[in-house]
Specification:
Elements (H helix, E strand, L loop, with lengths): L8 H7 L6 H11 L1 H17 L19 E3 L6 E3 L1 E5 L2 H13 L17 E5 L6 E5 L3
This protein binds zinc ion (ZN).
């Protein structure tokens, strides 16, 4: 008489193996552990490689143009705002010449001499009257 058929997997689960649920838990833990460990390391490596940024170390050079500039006078070492003065320069003469060629030679060619936008700009120190810089449009 062989009565082995009764101990089938189905019957065993119901009756004698209440410890079957644990396996799924144990299987999930080792599987979920690796990802968290690997993620932190990934961004770190990326950050190290992308940090290299080349920045040109250029000292700010003050631009002496048409408007007064706040600077330090090299002569009297005073912090001053330069006094600007418009002077006829080579650019003024070129504009005059161009106007002559175009046909505006009846007085019109002297317009550039009256327009500050065509003249060079001289920056001088209001303290000691020394010419600090000259803005040449050419
Ligand atoms: Zn000065």
């Amino acid at each position: 008489m062989s009565a082995p058929p009764p101990p089938y997997p189905g019957k065993g689960q119901e009756a004698g193996y209440p410890a079957q649920p644990p396996p799924p838990q144990g299987y999930g833990q080792p599987y979920g552990a690796p990802p968290p460990a690997g993620q932190p390391g990934y961004p770190q490596q990326q950050g190290q490689t992308t940090v290299v940024v080349a920045q040109p170390a250029v000292t700010v050079v003050q631009q002496f143009r048409e408007s007064p500039v706040h600077t330090r006078c090299p002569h009297c070492q005073a912090e001053v705002v330069t006094a600007t003065q418009f002077e006829t320069g080579s650019f003024t003469w070129i504009i005059c010449l161009v106007l002559c060629i175009v046909g505006c030679d009846l007085g019109c060619c002297f317009i550039p001499f009256c327009v500050d936008g065509c003249k060079d700009v001289t920056h001088s120190c209001p303290n000691c009257k020394t010419v600090i810089s000259r803005y040449n449009r050419m």
